[in-house]
Amino acid sequence: MWRKWLLLLGLALVLAAVNTTLYQREHLLAHGTVLRLALAPVDPRSLLQGDYMALRFAVAVEAAAARAAAAGDGGSGLLVLALDARGVGRFRRFHAEGTPLAVDEHLLRYRVRNGQLRLGTDAFFFEEGQGGAYAAARFGEFRLAADGTALLTTLLDEHLAPLGREAAAAR
Asked: What is the mean pLDDT of residues 160-171?
């Protein structure tokens, strides 16, 4: 009998954790700061391999170069980005704990996996057969929380116009 109650308690805890995470993500999507990051060139074959596009961001390339020059070996941390008038983020420096941010600066979490500096995600998934609609992607648009958490929401062209399904909805 106690096993049944223990199982139900465990299930309730898992459901509470999942719902809390979902609420936090939905809140971030609705209220997060808009951040746009320029895409760096990546192997175009990924666009043809399946229903996703491999992503690499110019900010990550800059930060990785700065990290290598400083002989950094940490596995994760925070970048400091400055947003220009169009909301495009530019790498400024790595964040040091306790260092205040300027008015135009924002934090962005990064992690290092297999020697590569990653920001949020390294892939964008789309509906089957829609790869051509994203071929003109030049920016990724994120919603950014104050703690540096970022969620990729869409891909943008060189004029910062949404691509794919988002472009059709905007028309």
From this structure: 70
